[in-house]
Amino acid sequence: MERLKPGSKGPLFWLGQRHALLRAMAAALCAVGALVGCGGGSVLEVSIGKEGETVIGSPLPSNLQIPDLPGLRGFAYVITTAPPLGIFRFDLEAPGGAPYPFTYYDLFGKIPGVPDELFLYDQDHGMFTTSGGFAGQGEGIHLFDPTPESPAAFAIKKSVPVFPVLLNPPRNDSAGNPVSRIDPSYTSGVAVSNGKIYVCTSNFTAVGGSPVCPPGTVLVYRWDPSKDPPEVVPSSPSFIVTTRFNPTEVTALGDRKVLVTNSGVLAIREARAVPLTEAAVDVVDTDLDCVVATYPLGLSALSYKAIAVAPDRSRALVGSVAFNSVFELDLTALEDLPAGCPDPVPALTGRVLAGPENPIRTGFSGQDGKKENDFVVQIALSADGTRAYASGYNSGTLSVLEVEQAVRTPSPKGPLAVLSLTPPLDPEQATVEDVGPGPLAVRPGRPGVDYEGPDVFVLIGLPAGKMFGVRTY
Amino acid sequence: MRMTWKGQGAKGALFLPLLGVVLFLFGPASLLAQQADEAGKREEQIVPYELEPILVRTVRIRQAERDPSSFASVLETEPYQAHFRTVPDLLSRQPGVHLSQLGGLGQFSTVSIRGSSAEQVLVLLDGIPLNTGQGGSVDLSTIPLESLERIEVIRGGGSAVYGPDAMGGVVNLVSKKPGETPEVDGLFTYGSLETVKGAASARGRTGDVGYFVSATHLQSEGDFSYDTLDIRTESGQPLQRPQQRERANNDFSSQDLLARLTFSPWKNLELDVSNELFHTERGQPGFAENPSLDARQRYLRDATYIKAVLPRFLGQTSRLSGTLFQRFDRIRFRDPAPSLGNPIDTLSRNYAFGGNLEWGLYGKALACEHVAALGWDIEREELRDEVAAGQAGFGSRGRTTNSVYGRDEIVLPGGKVSLLGAWRLEQSGREGTHLSGKAGLVWKFFWKAHFKANLERAYRRPNFTELYHPDQGYIRGNPDLDSERATNVDFGVGVALPRFFFEAAGFHSRVEDSILWLPVSAFTVQPVNTGRVRTWGAELDVEARPWEFLGLTVNYTYLHAQSLETGLQLPGRPRHTVNGRISLDRPVGSLYGEIQYVSSIPVVSTGELALKWRTVADLGAKANLEAVPGLGKIPWVRSLSAGLDVKNVGDVSYRDAQNFPLPGRMVLGTIEARF
């Protein structure tokens, strides 16, 4: 190899001089090379959204809570079921309205299973359920602090799995086969009452067009939130078997009682929910941990979200996932229940103010008095309890219902008003736009007095997951 | 200037590393094998012999034989010998083409052309449609490159010329032909993810029978590490941070056998017989965030055709050809523990058989030359599936498609202007009768410059999955679907010189009754005819070889594919795609570098979610070992090459679909020999 003499230029220089094009190409390659390894094709960007809407970026978020708790009344908590998998805390008091700024608490990789129900107990204690997951390892409840110092400080304080349930004597599943052991699955609703956590599990062994359901169960845990991490252990008795199949929600009633929604076994046929077994709302005494009464509601396929309980606890509203119907229950009947765990469980048939034969209808078809298929996802009451809001997933609507009802009405009632939030879902007329109003919540306080802006918030399920605020006053 | 390296001979042929590119260009003098000119004397008697008139129809590069006015890419596979390349790799680098992979090597890969869906791209293997009646789209990972001679990508529809369902474009795969001289080829590849490929082929002629046979085996452990999605707002606020995970159940093992014979049992009759058998067994890992660790698929395909050609039928300028074909696809899928629903165990069998009769002729009329064809196609497709007890299946489904077609390429006097007209009248079971047509123009307006334009009406029938998917609660078919219909327009200019090619095209397509899988209730997704979809854009394609050793290719695609309902970009279609390639070719070997930029890909129809842009680069090198002194004299060895390919050099983590990560950097080495 030639040695370079001082002051001389080596062969590479001459090569470069003669081949300026190659030098340019080399420079281009270097510039291009800088791009190699660049780019975030695994980066998923979520746009902020248009004015008036808040983008969540995760389809079918499963729950929305605006807790009526000190320090939390100005926040909307949303839990998602798909990436970004986590809990969003939207600041409803931020100036400018939607899209609301948020703090995000990441759950990805921290939990097995898919989140379902979210429950906030106080500023320091919240919990959510999960189900599914790899090899069914995701069934359980998870406790967290809803107001950590920062997103990085967010952590799951405790995860509690479900436990097997042994039935002695055996009980039949929905297909009539005896069942003596249940490995709980499809964990969904959760509520706290009397120092205990109540979690319901549907336990399906087959789903779809021909579902099969073992007896539904409510698992009971003793809970001591004063400890860090909180202590959660199975109580005694540790489970309650519901009167109907497919318990999907537990709602705290106060007064040492919880309501358990038994939706009944549902088949999905021709894109509709078809109820195969009867539905009912069970009343559980949380001192005795047994079912003390039940409101039978026939083949009505009850909604999966929390029952709306009037502020004075005189009545409750629950929807249907198969029809444009809302049912109303007279809770004053619970004041006269006999003591103890009754067998058989008394059926409060006469205390159903609006039942399957005379429901409160929802949606535009409800205004016409027509019974139609719909999916009433959730009902929430106004602060004064005189009105209820019901979201219709298939109809794309938010219905305003009148609650004040002293006597049982003989015929169906329609909604007071119906708001179209999204295009309806219809096999004859599908759309690529936002669809599926789902979980909803009413902001605590007096609208226009305690706060300005929307008073009702609704989650829109598809395709990207959003939160709409609606002003009804 | 002579370069010498201490300790080595001046003429040492050195295989230099990539960093030695510049030096490599000025290495030792050419080591091309000397062509031995026979200086022998021929003392032949030249006897005048009058040939019968011969119609010579050449296929120029970048021109589809049956559709000369369309904008097309023609890829010869020969340059990719001794490199580890796949059919999806090559297609993804073409203008107007976007590849969607659901898992990298050996996993489901489809293409979209000019914003079409994968079901709107007709894929032909030697004229046999590979799109099954069941699924519609074609998994291009099941096509081994080693058995192909060339790949044509016809952009912008082709129903009138190629048949139904070619609404977005056509991928025409042409297998290798038997050769005149015997040749045996073998290659072996080993590389990342325990990837192993072995392939062998032989071709030649025995008497009047020409043959080509090839066998390929490709397998990979497939499992790879990847980063989960890094999810953030467009303003940069982090949401879900990436974590490293392992993608399991991603292995596969595939085999392919192709045999082709050509012979002329009589004068004026040519027969071409071929059979292709493909098999793969692979894991189906499913969604990344909800993986299926036990789901497996076994796929078998057998495709056969017999083609007879009378090159001089009713005269010297008339040709008759007839083809019979069959195709059988067997798909077994099992998932004992799906993330949603009950265990799955299905077996689907797709049968297709049919024929074609075409009369082609050349003539002159009104001072114009005509290259015309009139033909008849018939195809019967059947689907039969078996499912486990208690599950709903497709049952037995079938349809017969009967069509007549015609086309005429009219070359106007002077030879500068060609007009193409094509029509197809088709009757197909429940879809009724469809008429599709095409008008094309080629105008060589200046020296080597040309102008092309096309107007076409095309359509796509719903496939059996869209029509008859069993109602499984969460998903079901829709037997009331109408066919999709499209009006495609494109035009462009180009220059074709021996060392330079340039083409720029604009296109517009309007699709009516576009079929999309959409939620129709809180519980169920099904395909529906939605509103109109419009795609428009531009393609720019440049290829240059300024010097013999240097090749440059750049293409750019701008794509605006929107739903006219929302006005937003359709999911899965990037707005911008740029491909670049540089190759350096010398007798001792070659180097290449490729780079691809894909802009952000919308994930949902309402536009709020998008996979961010990416740039991915590949590098490769090949050494022609027979040029190495001492190695070039191996008996029987005509050529011996060693190649090294580095795919995704930057180890970029990227995805074509939100829930399906792709492997990072892969390094593969190949040895190929020809005898």
Q: What do these coordinates show?
A:
With 473 residues, chain A is mainly beta. Chain A has helices at residues 11-18, 20-35, 363-367, and strands at 43-46, 53-55, 63-65, 75-79, 86-91, 102-106, 114-120, 126-131, 140-144, 156-161, 165-172, 178-182, 187-193, 196-201, 217-224, 231-241, 247-254, 257-262, 266-269, 272-275, 280-285, 290-296, 308-309, 315-319, 325-330, 352-354, 360-361, 376-381, 387-392, 397-402, 417-420, 435-442, 456-462, 466-470. Chain A is built from 3 helices and 34 strands. In chain A, strand 13 (187-193) and strand 14 (196-201) form a beta hairpin. Chain A is globular. With 675 residues, chain B is an all-beta fold. Chain B is globular, with a radius of gyration of 26 Å. At the A-B interface, helix 1, helix 2, strand 1 and strand 19 of A face helix 1, strand 12, strand 13, strand 27 and strand 32 of B.
How far is it from the N-terminal to the C-terminal residue of chain B, by CA?
37 Å
What coarse outline of chain B follows from CA principal-axis ratios? globular
Mean pLDDT of chain B: 87
What is the overall number of helices of chain B?
Answer: 4
Q: How far is it from the N-terminal to the C-terminal residue of chain A, by CA?
A: 89 Å
Residue share in β-strands of chain A: 35-45%
- Using only C-alpha atoms, the radius of gyration of chain A works out to 27 Å
Mean pLDDT of chain A: 88
Based on the model shown, name its key terms.
heterodimer; A: 473 residues; mainly beta; 5-stranded antiparallel beta sheet; 3 helices; 34 strands; 40% strand; disordered N terminus; B: 675 residues; 5-stranded mixed beta sheet; 39 strands
